[in-house]
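Q: Joint fold for the lines below.
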Amino acid sequence: MGSDNEQEWLDTRFDELWPITRSITGPGFRKSLEILQQDIPLEIQSVPSGTEVFDWEIPPEWRVHEAKLTGPEGEVYADLNETNLAVVNYSEPVDKHLTLNELDPHLYTLPDLPEATPYVTSYYERNWGFCLPHTVYESLPEGEYHAHIDSELDEDGELNYAHTVLEGESDREILLSTYLCHPSLANNELSGPLVMASLYNRIAAWDNRKFTYRFVILPETIGSLTYLSEYGRHLQDNLVAGLVLTCLGGPEETLSYKETRREDALIDEVVRHIDDYMDQDIQFRRFDTKGSDERQYCSPGFNLPVGQFARTPYGEYDGYHNSLDTKEFMGIKSLVESAEGIEQVLKTIEYGGYYLNQEPYGEPMMSKRDLYPTVNNPDEYDGRDLVRTMMRILNYSDGTRPTVKIAERYEMPVEDLRVAIEQLCHTGLLEPMSHTPDYNNHHES
Amino acid sequence: MGSDNEQEWLDTRFDELWPITRSITGPGFRKSLEILQQDIPLEIQSVPSGTEVFDWEIPPEWRVHEAKLTGPEGEVYADLNETNLAVVNYSEPVDKHLTLNELDPHLYTLPDLPEATPYVTSYYERNWGFCLPHTVYESLPEGEYHAHIDSELDEDGELNYAHTVLEGESDREILLSTYLCHPSLANNELSGPLVMASLYNRIAAWDNRKFTYRFVILPETIGSLTYLSEYGRHLQDNLVAGLVLTCLGGPEETLSYKETRREDALIDEVVRHIDDYMDQDIQFRRFDTKGSDERQYCSPGFNLPVGQFARTPYGEYDGYHNSLDTKEFMGIKSLVESAEGIEQVLKTIEYGGYYLNQEPYGEPMMSKRDLYPTVNNPDEYDGRDLVRTMMRILNYSDGTRPTVKIAERYEMPVEDLRVAIEQLCHTGLLEPMSHTPDYNNHHES
Amino acid sequence: MGSDNEQEWLDTRFDELWPITRSITGPGFRKSLEILQQDIPLEIQSVPSGTEVFDWEIPPEWRVHEAKLTGPEGEVYADLNETNLAVVNYSEPVDKHLTLNELDPHLYTLPDLPEATPYVTSYYERNWGFCLPHTVYESLPEGEYHAHIDSELDEDGELNYAHTVLEGESDREILLSTYLCHPSLANNELSGPLVMASLYNRIAAWDNRKFTYRFVILPETIGSLTYLSEYGRHLQDNLVAGLVLTCLGGPEETLSYKETRREDALIDEVVRHIDDYMDQDIQFRRFDTKGSDERQYCSPGFNLPVGQFARTPYGEYDGYHNSLDTKEFMGIKSLVESAEGIEQVLKTIEYGGYYLNQEPYGEPMMSKRDLYPTVNNPDEYDGRDLVRTMMRILNYSDGTRPTVKIAERYEMPVEDLRVAIEQLCHTGLLEPMSHTPDYNNHHES
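A: Joint structure:
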């Protein structure tokens, strides 16, 4: 699909998703997943409220029907119908008449960005409130206000997540994970699922896939905890690499990669290799416990090889978690560029990883496989470079060095090994390793 | 106790210990331990002469009652009553009349420091001799001399050492070891036991101790060998860190740390961290086989994580092993400063070591423990820095990284993690590791 | 034996070996081994053609009796009687009359070196051909040519190799391997076996050998594969270090060392140590799959600690694999210098390796072995440096550090440890390690 078509498609999808009142649970989240099912064959799962996930418990399901703050003169100062940000997410129901003084602890503004409405949540402590621009807040007259929030916190509700798998030659997996719980935020919400939709379609169109690709969309934090409680062991057994997708739009020129907690996982090596040897510049951030769902995937008990890609990361732009995080700020074109950059990373992981030489005792005989010029004639150097590359790959493919590192030993991009790797796999001299020893030692420990 | 009081106390104790005729065995050594029992509740142990300790054998117990070298005119040139250094330590008994020529092989001087009397020992080869200033030696007249040493080498004697333990929350131990065998030397003898007395009283006064502290005073070399033959396995099983205390007075401005043989033991990391990130400058020496009892603790069969602290180390000052090593050279004030510096190191080990996150699967839920602001309101950043510090500590406390290294990852002094560590331990989210895997693998090897 | 005598001897041997028509199999190879038996007590072995060795099969034995290319006027353009290079090595028999056009695919020249005759082989693909200078090739007239090669490819033939062992105190081995299959090439053929002859006689003359030395002469590639199929397991169990000898003459001033695949094997450390701390400068090449028989010894299934020494390496001089590779280019004197340089390396491995302290608990008591001054007298420093060196060696000889690394810790050449090592071995305090753990872990893997 052409880039123009792709932009048009993502633009349409953005507009469908933007107005929905989403939270970490509830009908808005489910509705959003259904919209994305047009692009990714997502299987939607549910887990009951109250379920314990590690140190946490899935909260009641939140549904909100109306939220309106009316002033003494009947003027409406905050209204869910105007913006999803107007109400504190997970507000309990309220229907009260209060003085401005009594109301004040329930009002949230951003004094430093006086025109912006903040995005505020209170998932795990019962609370209610309204968010509004600081300019409006400062103009509020004295008098009696009516705070009305028609919401439910259903203990018999559920949490939802969705996933699907694109199978490859190996059942070893690459994880792509993003979240979909913030309503009416663009860069720090819809950019992730939309880039995932693009990546799903790109990867599905590849001629072949060495690895199996797992696509996961969930509510941030509690969703990835829930997913790990169900699939954590599976991921420990099968994961080659993973990426959390977040904040993939905005004005930054290059992708920004947050390293895994391990710092030397294959995905880290591949992204560094691309930045050092190939045609994509990438910014790097070290692992830290501030961030998105990689905080859960990279918790010490799992320590999965999961990095994160962003373009204009959380906390580094004014519109973070407020009404300035718009479609215009994000830019649909940025999303397409992000998908292209991440696709290059994934393609490079496909052949940049660990292989095993199947004839490790002595050199394999290349000529009987038509891989070597049979006459040792110094005037006939056709094919010699390719053979030399194959011999190097065979020698170092002992399970301890990915091809990306073999390439670096010879100061070349791993792209230049690709034809040789494919020919060697074709003849059976080389086989992808089904397991990399490093990531899967939890059985022993 | 105030620093002035401490100086006074150590000064008094110095004067009690100085005149005693000590050696590696015998009544002087025992008497000295009894004096120190005023400050440390030392348990005094004995091991019979002749006992084999590894490649060595405990020598006979030496007692000396009189040692005097009288000249042809009755002039006394060396006299144990004048200075303990006058007689070669472990001299066998002698009562002979000799010419100056016959006497000469038994006289020891320092030609480069002609006014100083050397300190000479001969523990393992039977010998006798006198030590005197080179100026006196050069003025000796011809004639008949009377060499009289009234000493015993008792095969039925014993070697003594003394130790005590200050218990902590964990039975994992910190070892402080010093020696007490040189008579009438200040920096290279009494500085060690006196700093240990100070440290004992300081540590006993701490509000709490994470570790158990073991204080050991012994004769150098043969004493630590004997101690290892009895407690070596115990130390291999329990030792977190150890320090040999020696030469802790003198004019140097900073403490001087000799690294463990491992070079990367926790104690090494902590001392480097203090020098790099905290308010104490420290000199460093690499491990070498020249030194004090760390030579035994760090022999390859034990390889214990034992470093050494000195201020003006052996071999780096004129008075080393001779009569210039006086109380004035050493300075009581230096000892107090040494104790303060070492106390800081020990305090830092208390919280700078290995902890284990007790909820390693996913992030722990901080808000249910009142450790996290429950409303995600960008305007309320109180307590956020503390929470971020706690999340970082939790994520990296997987048993492979001490908190001192976690602090360095964020380029901050480990002091700044202390409140967070204590809160996390208080809630049970973090627990000190009872064993660090590194030092205790002798069972497998 | 003096250096002049050695040059004379090697010169004579060169002239005997040069004219023989050698290949990887056949009577010329056997004849050459017999000539070398004058200098090395080689045991000659045979393996039948058709034997499978790993991924390869031993080819038929090649014998060639006559090879002549005659022109239209009866002029002889290529003749085995003139030079061994005239015929493509392993040519099948042919007796044909052809036009110049039909003949052309069977003619090999070097357009860039128009006066030189190339060396061409076709061991594993049936083919025939003639090699000639490009100037001759360009002058060939049209007309009918007679290509006559009287050769056999005997399926019932054999491959030969030869080896011998010089026993040492330990049955742990040092391997020296070279090849002998190129006819009438000097630097890239006879230099290797002749340097080996020199080394055999030098090592045989040593006062003692710690290690056992294995000398192997074989046809390149298929010979080392065959050797590994018979002795690979033995080498995995016993090899301390190995060297392939190739291209050891020519104008370069220093030896050139190609590192082992491991890069940190003892032999690598020793050669680097000599270059850094001792009186021989050495050039270094990283391991690569271009090269000689180290490609087989260092294949990932064996990964033996085998490096390679050359002086003017293959591919780095015009005469590589053509008639310019003459005795004059190679130079007999260069061979003697190469043997001297390699002998220094081997001598250094003898005492530069792994030892085990036999009294690892505490310091050994040196004085009871007469290794230590018994009177601690500062005026008597004779022997102190030696004792300090011994204490350092003992402390670090725990099986993880070769003495070459202990020397580097103290920034001194390992030569300076030699006396101490010998004294310690003499008293039994130190013993050479019979196995280095690193190289012999194939049983577990």
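Q: Anything notable?
A: Residues 199 and 296 of chain C are 23 Å apart (CA to CA). Chain C touches chain A at residues 53-56, 88, 108-111, 118, 120-122, 124-125, 127, 129, 221, 224-225, 228, 232, 261, 288-290, 295-296, 298-303, 321-322 (CB under 8 Å).
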